[in-house]
Amino acid sequence: MKQTRVGPWRSASACLACACAAVLLGALVTAGAGCGGSESASRVVRVGFLRNDLHQLAFYVAREKGFFKEQGLDIREGGAFNAGPEEMSSFSAGDLDIGYVGTAPCLTFAGQRMADVKIVAQANTGGTSLIVRPGLDVKEITDLEGRTIAVPGLSTVQDFLLHRALEKAGMEPSQVRKTVLKPPEMLPALAGAQVDAALAWEPYPSMARAQGAGRTLLSSREIWPDHPCCMVVADSAFIEKNPDAVRRFVAAHVKATRYIRDNRLEAADMAHLFTGQPTDVVRAAMKNIGFSFRPDIRKIGEYAVFMAGQGVIKEKNPAAFARSMVDSSFIPGDGK
Amino acid sequence: MKKWKLASPLAALAVWQALAVTGALGRATPSPWDVLKGLYDLAATGLPRGYHLQGHVAYSLLRVFTGFGIALVIAVPLGILMGWSRWFEAAVDPLVEVVRPVPPLAWLPLALVWFGLGLGSAAFIIALGAFFPIVLNTVLGVKGVDPRLVEAARTLGAREGTILRRVLVPGSTPSIITGVRIGMGIAWMTLVAAELIGVKNGYGLGYMIMTARDLARFDLLVAGILVIGVIGFLADRLIRIVEKRLLRWR
Predict the structure, then answer these.
(1) How does pLDDT run across A215-242, given as a tens digit for each residue?
(2) Which of A175, A202, A262, B164 is the residue whose CA sits 20 to 30 A from A335?
(3) Smallest Cβ distance to B211: which of A111, A113, A154?
(4) Closest Cα of chain A to B195: distance in Å?
(5) Is A93 on the interface with B (CB under 8 A)?
(6) A46 membership: H or E segment, kind and range
(7) Domains defined for chain A, CATH in brackets
(8) Max intra-chain CA distance, chain B
(9) Chain A residue closest to B117 (CA)?
(10) Based on the number of CB atoms within 10 Å of its own CB, is A86 exposed (0-12), middle (13-18) or buried (19 or more)?
């Protein structure tokens, strides 16, 4: 009886010892590779991106189509994040080399000196819509006076779009009631008439239409054509240490972005796999997104001026700050 | 003894300030001094601008006490019944045990649809969080009452209702209060999370913390954490004072 009890215990502890040894050995081997074979280690890139974000489709396409592999890059998933601020916190922690992230969290964290990053390419333009709840009789934005409008965060690109849209219509921001809701919660809030309108990025506007939770009043291209949205950002220390890997990464990103533009239908099927959204929703959503890789410094500057006006970044010259944040030299053809 | 009460918070503060000054915590972690300035900013300027700390505290208190009150009013009678009647406990317990392990936050999307954005859904989520520790501790308390006391009352001719009121409820009060204290703690935890998805009127401590995180203002974020900690502490003290009053007979 005693023997049989001891038996499994022994083997269990033996297993544990083996496992420990294996882990140690593995650590030693990797450490050795890190010291000796700097050539192979320098191609490792830790990438962060937002979960199910259609704007960042180029990352998925480049990975699935092997564009990163063509460049000899070893892409490690640094994290699939729910929101940009967490991704930027990961940059501050030194856990990411390159990330796909919104312009807002990128400029906010850089402006607060919480993360040292540069925008090395653009992921997309546009891709936001102002949606209104079903049954609400509005024809233009001026009809929303006194109504509650949800934005995904204060001083986000969507917040700026709301400001611009109101301004264009000759309205003051105080003429609507602004509230903050995360996009997944916007749809039930619209359907339940908790809010009257919302500004959300794709695929949420297309999902709202498909689910009968709302209809589009304005697309962001009518408010601010080709406005910057998601960016490809790189850690400044990583750029300095490993410019070649950044150049290769951007090359793969550019190729993937072109691929999406040239193969809309196939890209939509891939987007369906990436986001888990039905194909018809994804196709409708992609019509609102501009896939272009060259960051527009002037427009990013306009947005930075807005952020500074809101007190979110403390820069005396926000346009110059935006210029200092962008490094387009890794985009093929520009050369350094 | 009393002077030792401040020892652990003060030591934590000193270590924190020292680590922050040496830069060991990285640039994202504010020092106690930054947080103090942050507290002032929250009260004077507000976050978002114009939405002051006082308003955030007031709305969060309203949400917590509404949700907690609902939980208390349902959980204590239910717990007493469950502790008192075997068949009732047998009938209700499986349901309680199935719902209990579900994190209150998992209900959020449904709460939003049922009660809308605002006090209703927040109170629902908070009530769910506070409910179970109160129920379980009440059952435990009623069952823990010395059966000889019940027997003695019965032999003296007390009716069931009188036994319940004069023997079981007072006897189980210490345990109920333990449940209330745990429930209050969980109420605050769920409040912050419930406000994270958004609020309608722009007020709430959880919402304030989320805004600080979006704007990369970690000094304000930690100040918010501190405020919640202090309020939680005060709430617990309040319950202890009530406990002393209620249990004066002991």
Answers:
(1) 999 999 999 999 999 999 999 999 999 9
(2) A262
(3) A154
(4) 10
(5) yes
(6) strand A44-50
(7) 44-124+229-330 (3.40.190.10), 128-223 (3.40.190.10)
(8) 73
(9) A194
(10) middle
pTM for the full predicted model:
0.79
Distance from CA of A238 to the nearest CA of B (A): 18
CB contact under 8 A, B26 and A93: yes
Compute the Cα dihedral for A308, A313, A314, A316 and give only its sign. negative
Write down the pLDDT at residue B108. 83
pLDDT tens figures, A32-71: 343 334 444 478 999 999 987 899 999 999 999 999 999 9
> Looking up tokens 């102002």, which residue turns up?
A130
Here the tokens at position A242 are 């490993």
Residue B176: give the domain boundaries.
Answer: 61-199+231-246
Interface of A with B in 258-297 (CB under 8 A): none
Question: Which amino acid belongs to residue A169?
Answer: A
CA distances (Å), A34 to each of A28, A40, A73, A85, A246, in order?
Answer: 10, 8, 16, 30, 19
Nearest residue on chain A to B120, alpha-carbon basis: A194
C-beta atoms surrounding B151 within 10 Å: 11
Residue of A nearest to B118 (CA): A194
Phi, psi (degrees; rounded to nearest 5) at A122? -110, 145
**Count of structural domains, chain B:** 1
Residue A265, pLDDT score? 92
Of A59, A93, A284, residue with least CA distance to B218: A93
Residue B166 within any structural domain of the chain: yes
Whether residues B214 and A148 touch (CB distance < 8 A) is answered with no
Here the CATH number for the domain that contains residue B172 is 1.10.3720.10
> From the candidates A147, A194, A195, which should be mutated to test the interface with B, based on the most B CB atoms within 10 A?
A194
Using a CB-CB distance cutoff of 8 angstroms, which residues of chain B are in contact with residue A191?
Answer: 113
Q: Judge whether residue A87 has pLDDT over 80.
A: yes
ipTM for this prediction: 0.72
